[in-house]
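Marked as duplicate of an earlier ticket. Keeping the data here for the record.
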Amino acid sequence: MEQTFADRLAQIIGVESVASFSRRSGIRESLLRKYLNGSLPTVKNLVILADAGATSIGWLASGRTPQIAAEVLEESTIGNTNPPAINDELQLLICYRQADKQQKAAIRALLVAFVKPSGIA
């Protein structure tokens, strides 16, 4: 079954509340709920939603890949002479977005421990 716009919007919202995503994106919560129930956004709101979800406009609108916005990829490789495996980064980002608050806290703690293994701040 092909994903709808509402499905893709729900995916970028993830475990974040609709109210929280509304505040972060600047799109009224009532309008977000209309979109989640099948209404389609204006082009202006599509761009805002894609930016807030760090996803590409094309993916959000149509489901065409890539899902992750190009700027996210560019920022991850700027100044890096040996860019990491982009697919791995994308998978990590997608998994992080789908994690709940407790899982995200654990991931952040793991990253801090990895970057500062001695525990010294």
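See parent ticket for discussion. The mean pLDDT is 79.
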